[in-house]
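User: Can you help me understand a structure? I only have the sequence.
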Amino acid sequence: QVQLVETGGGLVQAGASMRLSCAASGGKYGMGWFRQAPGKEREFVAAITWSGNGFYADSVKGRFTISRDNGKNTVYLQMNSLKPEDTAVYYCAASWSINYRTVDDYDYWGQGTQVTVSN
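Assistant: Let's start by predicting it. Here is the structure, written out as tokens:
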């Protein structure tokens, strides 16, 4: 069983930056970040392979950066130029699959952390 714990959420103003962290219990799996706004489906944000290849949703490309420190079993999501539409609960997830863009590709999920971006 893989355990994931997200930290780093909070309230910021538009244009600000924030970094989310996800501490994992260990294992060579791909990691992803998803988000879910009220009344909307959970959507893909970014993913990273064990070797460090990153993938992004078009809506965050150029603003968000995913990275990982395998020695610390931690994945990060650096979010810059935040917009009000980035407001959501952000979830970290772990995957044994080579696919990474859908909820069904992931086997384990964190509890989520709230990110709120005000105007």
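Now, to help you interpret it: The chain has no helices and eleven strands. The chain has a mean pLDDT of 95. Let me know which part you'd like to focus on.
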